[in-house]
Amino acid sequence: MNVLKLDKLSKTYATGDTALNQVSFEVPAGQVLGLIGPSGAGKSTLIRCINRLVEPTAGSITLGGTDLAQLQGAALRRARRRIGMIFQEYALVERLTVMENVLSGRLGYVSLWRSFLRRYSPDDVSKAFSLLEQVGLSQHYNKRADALSGGQRQRVGIARALEQDPELLLVDEPTASLDPKTSRQIMRLIGDACRERHLPAIINIHDVMLAQQFTDRIIGLRAGEVVFDGPPSGLTDEVLTRIYGDEDWTRMRGEEAGADEPRTPAVDLAEGI
């Protein structure tokens, strides 16, 4: 089973600043975990330590029995193929088509000359078409990425990550640039894809209401430490204060819900953008 396990994961920068302090938790197969906390809490650092874009100072990161923190060179490159990443700013190649961007999820599996010529197997292309249909973009397969809306770009990012056949999905602020309705569509797509594939996922998300609605479990970070780990229903006002500091959470919930109402018609939000 694809299980992610962090054990006393720490990151201290050369400046002496501690971004993560002995963070430990497991994410079982199929679970969608929401990672919340104030700016500077260590959320993005944690995700980037898992895929080794940031080097951890101490601790282990085990995925399917392999400690990612110990890998180097070719072994690390192979391990990264097992981890799908969805970015806040989409990270698409603007001049390439939607299909070419999705197929780039297979770059780690093809030879250098095939990747240079963008030659992919029929199976890879067939799977890409299937994924584009799943995210509601099959009719846009030949459109350039720079001609898409923000929600459509994020859907391409989801399809690209799934094209990798990952064992773990890392998602960094997927709704930060999206309107409320599109944000719900994107979160639902990610959750459905993970549960369908029994894929563990960590979503770094700033919107607490979205995290409560679309994740199975929430971890709250503050100053690089886990201060909450539990179900979305456990995010009481007291817990939110522990994570973020003093605030009138009851009033804030009312304001956020009211702000969404005019822009969220009573329809199935899984419908395409």
TrEMBL record:
Q: Organism classification, top ranks?
A: Bacteria, Pseudomonadati, Pseudomonadota, Gammaproteobacteria, Pseudomonadales
In this chain the ABC transporter domain maps to 4-248
**Membrane topology term:** Peripheral membrane protein
A Pfam family that the UniProt record links to this protein = ABC_tran
Q: Name one GO cellular component term.
A: plasma membrane
Q: Which GO terms describe its molecular function?
A: ABC-type phosphonate transporter activity; ATP binding; ATP hydrolysis activity
- Is-annotated flag, keyword Translocase? yes
What does the UniProt keyword field contain? ATP-binding, Cell inner membrane, Cell membrane, Membrane, Nucleotide-binding, Translocase, Transport
Q: Which domain of life is it from?
A: Bacteria
State the compartments where it is located.
Answer: Cell inner membrane
SUPFAM superfamilies from the entry? Answer: P-loop containing nucleoside triphosphate hydrolases
Q: What is this protein called?
A: Phosphonate ABC transporter ATP-binding protein
Q: Which residues form the signal peptide?
A: none
Q: Which SMART domains match?
A: AAA
